[in-house]
Design the sequence.
């Protein structure tokens, strides 16, 4: 288990995914859109002190254990842990098929 505090880095793709999710939810409820994004960010920040808090990404082919994922509000957040960096790779709705 990694005990050092990690830095969270959102890729441009994951930032775009978050914006798209926000925009979509915001059509119905700006308040809910904010809540969903805040909860996703909060859940992501749980990995700062324990990057292995979430299970290995079961959809990642040949996963060496550094690729991990979790679900929050029907969104699947995938990330990769390298040294002291947690790189958020993607945010997608669970109704969408995963990319392999």
Sequence:
């Amino acid at each position: 288990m990694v005990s050092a505090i990690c830095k969270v880095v959102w890729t441009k793709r994951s930032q775009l995914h978050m914006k798209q999710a926000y925009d979509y939810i915001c059509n119905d409820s700006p308040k809910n859109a904010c809540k969903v994004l805040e909860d996703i960010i909060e859940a992501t920040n749980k990995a700062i002190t324990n990057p292995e808090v979430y299970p290995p990404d079961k959809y990642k082919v040949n996963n060496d254990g550094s690729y991990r994922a979790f679900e929050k509000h029907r969104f699947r957040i995938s990330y990769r842990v390298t040294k002291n960096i947690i790189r958020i790779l993607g945010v997608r709705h669970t109704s969408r098929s995963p990319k392999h």
Remarks:
- The chain has a mean pLDDT of 91.
